Amino acid sequence: MSAVADAELEPELEAELEARFEATVRRKDRIEPRDWMPEAYRKTLVRQVAQHAHSEIIGMQPEGAWIGRAPSLRRKAILLAKVQDEAGHGLYLYSATETLGVSRQELTEMLIGGRQKYSSIFNYPTLSYADMGTIGWLVDGAAICNQVPLCRTSFGPYGRAMIRICKEESFHQRQGYELLTTMMRGTDEQRAMVQESVNRFWWPSLMMFGPPDDASTNTAQSMAWGIKTHTNDELRQRFVDMTVPQAEVLGVTLPDPELAWNEERGSYDFGQPDWDEFWRVVKGDGPCNAQRVAHRKRAWDEGAWVREAALAFASRAGSAGLEDDVSDGTEAT
Amino acid sequence: MPDVRTHEPDDHDNAYAGLLVNDVHWAFGTDFEDPLAGVDATVPDGVEPAALATYCLMLGDDALVMSQRIAEWCSNAPDLEEDIALSNIALDLLGQARLLLARAAAADGAQVPALPDGSPVPDEDRLAYFRDVAQFRNVRLAEVPNGDFAQTVTRILLFSTWRLALFEELSRSRDAVLAAVAAKGVKELTYHRDFAGRWFLTLARGTADSRRRLLAGLDELWPLWAELFETHDVERAASGAGVGVDPAGLTADVDAVLDQVLAASGVDRPDHGPLGGAHGRRGRDGHHTGALGSLLEEMQVVARAHPRGQW
Ligand SMILES: [Fe+2]
Ligand SMILES: [Fe+2]
Questions:
Q1: Domain B17-305 belongs to what architecture?
Q2: Which value does ipTM take for this structure?
Q3: Conformation bin of residue A220: beta by default, left when phi > 0, alpha when psi is -120 to 50
């Protein structure tokens, strides 16, 4: 691992490696797992990619809770396929962190031990079937806004995972919007369900872009490293500008009295989410934080005997031939 | 999965591009609009439409109820790979159920529950969501509650070994729809049986704990096994008319496969007998365990709250 090599490097060599790293980032080329990288860059990436992976996996729960109750066979298939995709996204992203030397098991233990976070949006409950549509439209929609620029992020495995994921997220977003348009053509009760759901999810969706730029401590460094390419507020504005016309087509009202077109800026003005609520949820006091982590912990703990059995079986079968890939990246560049 | 090498990241700069248009990449909708599109749905000569419909309900309900149970694993599996695999199996069975219920409705509309005038609920959903417990025709193996992962693996092994043999024969049905559903299902069920067979072996030969759990799962489900081979009058008639399969005729083939898995795993066949029915009535007659009622209660709750709803 690069961290091990760092300590022993000559200062001139280290300066040269650092210059080469920075030049790569400036050219917008990719940093690959075997390239030298500053330790702080590696740590930031592990934190960000792990948090992203955890979000995919925890994000299975609010929608997974409605698979059993999906009101048509077609919707049941769509929802099940969507939640299954999120598990796949988690897998890609855990694989990307493994190239940085942290295993899926370690990361899962950090998640269920409360030492790593996931997107705060998943700490809100799902209360009606309309939420399946709203989550697709707004939550997957906000995720796409956040993630499209990450397709060009400086770390290769992360950027490539994002390309695959973004494609599927756009399916997710479309199925959500399509459910809502279908419900809006249905009964009065269904239309009311859609509006009520949008009312609940609008502000938490805006919070998905993170705190305002002046309160975001990590943004500047992440942008210098090419991990992030846009600020939180830029992405939030982009999301609002794209969403407002969609809401009009759908026939729902976004619950923000300050929302208005600003001719001069060519953008919508909008109100601020309740940032106190945001910080409470981030710190663990949202409506579903405890439940989400407990669910993940229960599934992980209850699966322990299965994973042990698979290892025991494989090691017996493995002693008959197959050898593990033992390359662990010890060579320093 | 999209191919990374041919993908242009700039395609996605606008998150909403294509939100309102249809394209071939739309993974979910396209072949779901009319489940029987393009297949000849005429009832073959000499076949009683009502019997054909009931026969389709039997096979459709098996898949629907089994799918509902397996989908309960979503976000609860031992690891992500198994979560994804179990969702795949549930999705395949759900697809089979949808086609079979649509076939039942097309063959005999009289079996489709009536809803208020103007209700847009399609026939296959009326059958899934607006029938009561006693109208469900599935075998009871499909409905009993989930236990641990070992019990689920065992249930999928038993179910898919039997259903695969059944579908291989059904793919030669005189009914074009059943033949097509079965031909597609054979590929799916081969994968399900393979998944379950490999896990059965792994758990049997993994740790002492996994082996103990596996044997307990097999013991629990074994009383439901014999029912799969009992011929109902409707199955006998369907088989006689060349559209369906008499399950009694599958016993030898299915036993041979199952015995192979058991032998490789060093597991003996349990020796206790089949679970009884009331007055000889079993799942195919609409006689169920208490578990089906609660399963349907959950499955049907939203649909029944909105009989005029559009989804
Ligand atoms: Fe995702
Ligand atoms: Fe998604």
A1: Up-down Bundle (1.20)
A2: 0.91
A3: alpha
What's the gap in Å between A296 CA and the centre of ligand 1? 17
Among B72, B87, B303, beta carbon nearest to A72 = B303
Q: Decide: helix, strand or coil at residue B26.
A: coil
Distance CA A244, CA A260 (A): 10
pLDDT at A316: 86
CA–CA distance, B128 with B131 (Å, rounded to integer)? 7
Helices (H), ranges, A135-210: 141-147, 156-184, 188-207
B178 phi/psi in degrees, rounded to 5: -60, -40
First to last CA, chain B: 27
Q: Is A151 on the interface with B (CB under 8 A)?
A: yes
CA of A132 to the centre of ligand 1 (A): 14
**Using CA atoms, how far apart are residues B215 and B200, in angstroms rounded to an integer?**
10
Q: Are A195 and A253 in contact (CB under 8 A)?
A: yes
Task: Give dist(CA B73, CA A84) in Å, integer.
Answer: 11
CA A144 to chain B, closest CA, distance in angstroms equals 6
Ligand number, closest to the Cα atom of A140: 2
- Going by C-alpha positions, the residue among B138, B68, B66 that lies closest to residue B283 is B138
**Cβ within 8 Å of B, A 246-265:** 246, 249
Phi and psi (nearest 5°) for A6? -45, -50
CB contacts < 8 A, A to B, total 211
Give the SS3 label for residue A29: coil
Cα of A86 vs centre of ligand 1, distance in Å, is: 4
Q: b vs e for B222-259, b when ≥16 Cβ sit within 10 Å of the residue's Cβ?
A: bbbbebbbbebebbebbbebebbbbbeebeebbeebbe
For every one of its 311 residues, what pLDDT tens digit does chain B have, with 9 covering 90 and above?
A: 333 233 333 333 443 444 434 343 333 333 445 667 777 788 999 999 999 999 999 999 999 999 999 999 999 999 999 999 999 999 999 999 999 999 999 999 999 999 999 999 999 999 999 999 999 999 999 999 999 999 999 999 999 999 999 999 999 999 999 999 999 999 999 999 999 999 999 999 999 999 999 999 999 999 999 999 999 999 999 999 999 999 999 999 999 999 999 999 999 999 887 777 766 789 999 999 999 999 999 999 999 999 999 99
Q: Would you state the structure tokens that stand for residue B143, as one six-digit string?
A: 């409905």
Q: If you average pLDDT over every residue of chain A, what do you get? A: 91
* Closest CB to A80 among B78, B90, B301: B90
Q: Which of B65, B76, B41 is nearest to B298 (CA)?
A: B65
Q: Rounded to the nearest 5 degrees, what angle is found at the Cα of A20, between the Cα atoms of A18 and A24?
A: 115
Q: Do B308 and A185 touch (CB under 8 A)?
A: no
Q: In this complex, do B28 and A310 lie within 8 Å of one another by their Cβ atoms?
A: no
pLDDT in tens, A137-162: 999 999 999 999 899 899 999 999 99
Which 225-244 residues of chain A touch chain B by CB within 8 A? 239, 242
Euclidean distance between CA atoms A148 and B74, whole angstroms: 27
Both tokens of B215, joined, read: 């044997």
Q: Is B117 left (phi over 0), alpha (psi -120 to 50) or beta?
A: beta
Could you tell me if A138 and A199 are in contact, meaning their C-beta atoms sit under 8 angstroms apart?
no
Report the phi/psi class of residue A82: left, alpha or beta, with left for phi > 0 and alpha for psi in -120 to 50: alpha
Distance from CA of B280 to the nearest CA of A (A): 31
- Is residue A222 within 8 A of residue A47, CB to CB? The reply is no
Taking the C-alpha atoms of residue B98 and residue A253, their distance in angstroms, rounded to an integer, is: 36
